[in-house]
Specification:
219 residues, single chain, mainly alpha, Methane Monooxygenase Hydroxylase, Chain G, domain 1
């Protein structure tokens, strides 16, 4: 959907096109994480390691796009607070990708066998819920320049997704609390669970910034 309504300044349109591209790369990063986690859960460790490399590539591309967005905001004249709003948005998008990459790093050191195979299903569900939440956020960003009401509805979906992810997080913690893996592995799995939870948290943070941007543009 082209950005038009509400973007009278050409630089705004250009910058938000870059933000949309950034959001798509962030979604791709989380999507690759889901693929890697599914492969690990099914015992396809070699494939999981290959996909983790793709998570890394997507995260690096997202990081590069973030820098491009910030550089674009240095051109032309925008109210400082408006520029900061966009910077806050892309930073939170970047944190989503960072959390996905961190989760992938922890995943590298985990094998879901024995009692941990029970936990794998919970973690896959968490990651899938994360991805749906990221998709809602990306759709909200896509609609910001053309349909404020749609953007707001998508932000509501992000909040609903975060609540689902929070309940899945608690479920995973309950499952994991009944297990007794070696201490080193336990620490890695605990960090993996927390990074999966952080993805949804950062989605909600980004949607809050997006709502603020919409309010300013409508005002």
């Amino acid at each position: 959907m082209p950005l038009s309504l509400g973007f009278r300044d050409r630089m705004w349109r250009s910058s938000f096109e870059l933000v949309r591209e950034h959001a798509a790369l962030v979604e791709e990063t989380v999507s690759e994480l889901v693929r890697a986690l599914r492969a690990k859960a099914e015992g396809r460790d070699a494939e999981a390691l290959r996909v983790i490399g793709e998570v890394r590539a997507s995260e690096e591309a997202a990081d590069s796009k973030r820098r491009e967005v910030v550089a674009s905001l240095g051109k032309g004249v925008l109210p400082p607070l408006s520029r900061q709003d966009v910077i806050h948005l892309v930073r939170r998008l970047d944190r989503i990708a960072d959390s996905a990459m961190d989760a992938a790093r922890y995943l590298t050191h985990v094998r879901f066998h024995g009692e941990l195979s029970v936990l794998a299903e919970d973690l896959v569900k968490m990651a899938e819920a994360d991805l749906e939440t990221v998709k809602s956020l990306r759709r909200a960003i896509d609609s910001i320049g053309s349909d404020y009401e749609s953007c707001s509805r998508r932000c509501d979906e992000v909040e609903e997704g975060e609540r689902l992810c929070d309940s899945l997080h608690m479920r995973a913690l309950r499952t994991f609390s009944g297990m007794n893996p070696p201490s080193g592995l336990a620490s890695v799995v605990a960090e993996l669970i927390e990074e999966l939870e952080s993805i949804a948290d950062f989605c909600e943070d980004a949607s809050d910034v997006l709502r603020a941007i919409v309010v300013r543009m409508q005002g």
